[in-house]
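Hi P.,

Sorry for the delay on this. The queue was packed all week, but I finally got your sequence through. Input first:
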Amino acid sequence: MRKLIAASAMLLAVTQVQAADECGKVTIADMNWSSATLIANVDKFILEHGYGCEAELVPGDTMPTGTSMIEKSEPDIAPEMWSNAMRDALDKGVAEKRLRFAGNSLSDGGEEGFWIPEYLVKEYPELATIEGVKKHAALFKHPEDRSKYAFYGCPAGWNCQISASNLFKALNLADVGFDLIDPGSGAGLSGSIAKAFAREEPWFGYYWAPTAVLGKYKMVKVDFGSGVDKEEYVKCTSSNECENPKVTMYPPSLVQTLTTEEFATRVPAAYEYVSKRSLTNKQLNTLLAWMEDNQADGEVAAEYFLTEHEDLWMPWVSADVAAKVKQALQ
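Then the structure:
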């Protein structure tokens, strides 16, 4: 009888291990911006070839994906969730055991700021500070009005337009002759930077990371001398109702990997992988610049990353999984 019980226990244990190893179908949100689609494709390749999952990319965006994961438990994974955009709803989903925050997909968080070209700072080191920018305001010629100086803001209708406008006001940039220019679109904003770099001309304005622009062009984030006042940023700087904004640097934006609770409990090994999978802004900026220069989509960029940057992704997985992924790449 004891032998029978022991054999049954062993069989149960083996069955449980096999069940844990059977990944099954996994859906991954393929968000509609470059860094997110790159990470989604990396996840797809590693989960398919390293963990035996039947991985599928599904279209996604921050609000609809988060809402669907809370209400329908699908998709299974959102690789790059800018979670502050719907923080209360996501926290409630975690509290109700519907969701899990697996980890930070961007280890140093999304980065925003006012920037100038590095070549300009080498010529005028003071420009690394906002007081230096004000002192040398005349360098930043306005494209249409030579009596004013140019500050390129965030495009109209984008959330960052609010914070950039409030900080423009708080820093009293208009008092020294700056005009807040609406670039019209994201392409217009990045195009103004590309044009300045092509001619090695002065440029001053808002931008964010991770982006191909900050991977291709060496920029310096201007120091306001204020540090980060997160409470001020949340309550006033980022609010359209802010009447008296104060100076603060941008706090890092929390960028996380979000999974459903069902996925995390069903495939713990795969969940452990997405918990460890993380990149820095600098690493991602470089990859995005490669994508843009080579006109690569997410699938091509993922294979490039996995082939050329083993030092970055191999620590995320076991030696056995790494071997399977490397073999699939060949």
